[in-house]
Amino acid sequence: MSLLAVEDLGISFGGVIAVDGVGFRVEPGQVFSIIGPNGAGKTTLFNLVTGIYTPHRGRVTMAGETLTGLAPHLLARRGMSRTFQNLQIFFRMTALENVMVGRHLSERTSLLSDLFGLPASSRQNRATRDAARVLLERVGLGAVADTLAGALPYGALKRLEIARALAAEPKVLLLDEPAAGCNAVETEAIDHLIADIAKSGVGVVLIEHDMKLVMKISDRVLVLAQGRRLAEGPPRDVRENPDVIAAYLGDHGAREADRAGA
Amino acid sequence: MLGRLLRARYATLFLLAAIMIAVPYLAPSAFYLRVAAVVWVFALAALGLTILMGYAGQVSLGHAGFLGLGGYAVAIGPARFGLDPVLCLFLGAALAGALAFLVGRPILRLKGYYLAIATLGFGVILALVFHSESDWTGGPDGMAVARVTVFGTRLAGAATWYWVTAGALLIGAFLALNIEASPTGRALKALHDSEVAAAGAGIDVGRKKLAAFVIGAIYAAFAGGLLAAMNGLITPDAASFMHSIELVAMVIIGGLGSVLGAVVGAAFLVVLPQALTVLQEYEQAVLGLLIMVFMIFLPAGIVPTLRKWLLERLS
């Protein structure tokens, strides 16, 4: 029984098949990457897995429990967290508060306790704040904890989203282009962070365009093209797969991937 | 020192209490106290919208409907069922909360303009019911509200009502400030910024919005009940669309999401029309103009703008 098993997922929008019978499995501690050209259906696949869209066919299970069609907040409760390609940051909150929201599932207060400002709520606030601070330090944003998220640079926001997703203590973490728009140093930091997260036993599903990063940290790679599975396997096999080279990377891309692997 | 004070959770409460104590000394006439009491009541209703609009980011253009509901509860309960008016104040709030719970479920699925129009429709329906069910509500002329007696003391006179409404507002502000700093408040502010990300963090967005809507309705109903009891009269006008718009305007002019802002906004829209009566037929025009000027120059609202300015000066 896999940690996350996706079987035969499919959805179409107005006759256009966006994802067509895609499946994959992720085990604890694994980094599973999904690559493919723009419009291949990577983010749509993420949205199907995380409950933003309801698939027309197929199944999503986590540790044997069927999760297909559950609302995102229920999936979060079962241990699934994600980040977003186009940032979904709480811009009016500080960096710390953003991560504190991520702790929502571990917060144990009632509405009445919150209304009357009972000690239980203050205690919970302190516990949440402490946990969030640790996570901010972990992604290297400890110094900007009290800065409004709206004032942080793009690269920092990418890491802030990871910290917020981690705050829920997920079993499966889906990262949608965490290194997009990041410079080499930032990408390196994210690389270490992802490896570190996987090492702690979390199953990481990664969408990423940075081939160097993908080839370096992935245990398995799934290649999508036009909503279909083109290839799947360890990075080396995928890179050498003639279909992938032809359909996705192209000649130029293949050379680049070679250099990256060398 | 002042900087820390500006950031402390209950600073608003102390400032508010200080103002409440100062007003009777500065303006010691029954007329001014009465105007101030109306400010406190509308501020209480606006505070409900601060939670709904300011924290959770959900607009309601029908909130005066709940105000009317609270008012009519205090009027009808004692007159028709012989119930205690104070009990009816709480019954009205409970009724408003229950109604908000029922209506909120389908309505709050809507977003932005659609939510605005749906809540508007809801408010209009309530106003219409108060208007036309004359057997119960006295129709367009409204109905008298029996005098309120608490522990054998009749609540009468401007000063008494001034302190009753001030106390109610302080309690309302206390609860609103607590919510803001709590896990619930964080969840509301999160879904305001991004519902997708809030849901991704495990927040039941629909339920949290509903909670904010119900709390907002209860605030408005309490305010409506106090207003009716204080005036000794309730008319369908209390639930009118115009009043709903005024409540929204109070929250925005004072500063969206700011507890003190709701009070300042209420003061702005209650006191200014009184002060502008000297302009006679130009009153409404000048009032409208002033609202425009304030929104253009203080788009974040009066209180947040002042607060930011003060904090910048201090640092």
UniProtKB/TrEMBL annotation, chain A:
SMART domains the record matches: AAA (SM00382)
Record key words, sorted: ATP-binding, Nucleotide-binding, Transport
UniProt key word Repeat: no
Domain ABC transporter: 4-251
GO annotation, cellular component aspect: plasma membrane
One term of GO molecular function: L-phenylalanine transmembrane transporter activity
GO biological processes: D-alanine transmembrane transport; L-alanine transport; L-isoleucine import across plasma membrane; L-valine import across plasma membrane
Transport is among the record's keywords: yes
Gene3D superfamilies: P-loop containing nucleotide triphosphate hydrolases (3.40.50.300)
CDD domains tied to this protein: ABC_Mj1267_LivG_branched
The name this protein goes by in its record: Amino acid/amide ABC transporter ATP-binding protein 1 (HAAT family)
Organism listed in the record: Aquabacter spiritensis
From TrEMBL, chain B:
Record-linked CDD domains: TM_PBP1_LivM_like
Domain of life, source organism: Bacteria
Keyword presence, Nucleus: no
Membrane disposition: Multi-pass membrane protein
Main location as per UniProt: membrane
An annotated Gene Ontology molecular function: branched-chain amino acid transmembrane transporter activity
GO CC term, one of those recorded: plasma membrane
Localization: Cell membrane
Spans traversing the lipid bilayer: 12-31, 37-57, 89-108, 113-131, 160-179, 210-235, 247-273, 285-306
Keywords, sorted A to Z: Cell membrane, Membrane, Transmembrane, Transmembrane helix
Pfam families hit by this protein: BPD_transp_2
Protein name listed in UniProt: Amino acid/amide ABC transporter membrane protein 2 (HAAT family)
Organism: Aquabacter spiritensis
